[in-house]
Design goal:
The protein is of the alpha/beta class and 375 residues long. It has two domains: 117 residues, NusB-like (N-utilizing Substance Protein B Homolog, Chain A), CATH 1.10.940; 208 residues, Vaccinia Virus protein VP39 (Rossmann fold), CATH 3.40.50. The chain is built from 16 helices and eleven strands. The strands form two sheets. Strands 3, 4, 5, 6, 7, 8, 9, 10 and 11 form a nine-stranded mixed beta sheet that branches. A two-stranded antiparallel sheet has the order 1-2. Helix 4 crosses helix 5 and helix 6 packs antiparallel against helix 7. It is elongated and about 70 Å long. The chain binds S-adenosylmethionine (SAM). The site of S-adenosylmethionine (SAM) has 18 residues, from helix 12.
Length: 375
């Protein structure tokens, strides 16, 4: 496998599309693997190459750039990143990583690729910053250090560079363990009772199907009609009844005061799920965070009136910034009459008046959650 050119050629073509067309890594990789005819081991190797190079491209470039004098053609840079990732992160022996990878290059560039990769192979990296060492944009590192503290941020950054598959739920659905913990909070027993549940940001349906398969009556709403199709196919697969409603969560069409539980699993910056979304760190913009926090607050304010007095409202986001999470929670409680339900059970670590799971806590995704009781 380590000498196989087909796997590397496929990885190169997927990476070129991600680079040139700004395509989403998972959306290009899956069909390419399905059409490849490769066996499962080779598919896993291609997946590791594609996601690894995508995540670690800043660190790879730092190792490559000292040996480059002219601007590189994007495909040649991708070939060099592929070689560098195999050498430094996959620990593939030099002869395989270099010679097979160089043979992907057009004839005119092979000399250059060979010379650069041979130098990269014997380099001992001295990383000037954590952002370069762990391959993140500077702003993400600064923001997480400011919000989580330096040590927790560093552990989170390291942890989100390690691939980890989602786990099967009892009913067969693939879902990360932290999302399952949010579903557990949503369906927990309590004074709010077992009536109707609204999930107002429901797609692709992970948490809504979990609640429905435990026998709760759930209505799944989402802004995106296209994404609601995913909820539909998931609910059909799992054979659960899940009425779907296309609606902007800030202008919900539902009668007030009829639900016992509402979930706002809101759109967010996703800084807790960077291990799953390999290219996300290069797409998210710091400037989006405040807008997302404002949207989350609006969604919460619009969701609360759906509840009967004493009903349970859950606000969750798969991110780790304070402005989303704690900031939204404080603004929400200042604006609306709610009672906080806290502290949250283990393994949630205390985060303001709510809970957080960092990616390193359970070797999972990062998630924050706040629970309220409607007055
Ligand atoms: C984090 S995802 C939800 C994940 C889902 N709860 C699950 O467990 O599978 C956030 C969802 O919010 C939806 N969304 C974004 N803006 C929205 C809005 N204004 N109103 C309702 N849904 C919105 C997105 O389409 C996306 O499906």
């Amino acid at each position: 496998m380590t000498e196989n050119i087909h796997t590397r050629r496929l990885a190169l073509s997927v990476l070129s599309r991600i680079e040139k067309d700004s395509a989403f890594a998972n959306l290009v990789l899956r069909p390419a693997l399905d059409a490849s005819g490769l066996d499962e081991r080779d598919k896993a190797f291609v997946t590791e190459l594609v996601y690894g190079v995508t995540r670690m491209r800043r660190s790879c470039d730092f190792l490559i750039d000292p040996f480059i004098k002219k601007k590189l053609h994007p495909d040649i840079r991708t070939i060099l990143r592929l070689g560098t990732y195999q050498l430094h992160w996959m620990k593939i022996p030099d002869h395989a990583a270099v010679s097979v990878t160089v043979s992907l290059a057009p004839r005119w560039a092979r000399g250059l690729c060979n010379a650069v990769l041979r130098k990269v192979a014997i380099q001992t990296p001295v990383w000037p910053t954590k952002a370069i060492e762990y391959s993140y944009p500077d702003w993400i590192v600064k923001r997480l250090e400011a919000d989580l503290g330096e040590n927790a941020a560093e552990e989170a950054l390291k942890s989100m560079n390690m691939a980890k598959p989602a786990v099967h739920r009892e009913d067969g659905y693939y879902q990360d363990v932290t999302s399952q913990l949010v579903s557990d909070l949503l369906t927990q027993e309590g004074s709010w009772g077992n009536g109707l549940i609204f999930d107002i940001c429901a797609a692709p349906g992970g948490k809504a199907t979990a609640a429905a398969s435990k026998g709760h009556p759930v209505v799944a709403a989402d802004l995106s009609v296209k994404r609601l199709q995913l909820v539909k196919s998931n609910s059909l697969k799992l054979q659960v009844k899940l009425p779907l409603v296309a609606s902007n969560g800030t202008k919900l069409p539902f009668r007030k005061g009829q639900a016992t539980r509402v979930l706002v699993d809101a759109p967010c910056s996703g800084l807790g799920v960077l291990r799953r979304r390999a290219d996300a760190r290069w797409r998210i913009k710091e400037g989006d965070i405040d807008d997302l926090a404002d949207l989350q607050l609006e969604l919460l304010c619009s969701a609360l009136p759906l509840l009967k007095p004493g009903g349970l409202l859950i606000y969750s986001v798969c991110t780790l910034t304070d402005s989303e999470t704690i900031g939204v929670d404080e603004r929400f409680r200042r604006r609306m009459k709610v009672e906080q339900v806290s502290p949250l059970p283990d393994p949630w670590r205390k985060h303001g008046e709510g809970g957080m799971i960092l990616p390193q806590d359970l070797d999972s995704e990062g998630m924050s959650v706040f629970c309220y009781k409607a007055k």
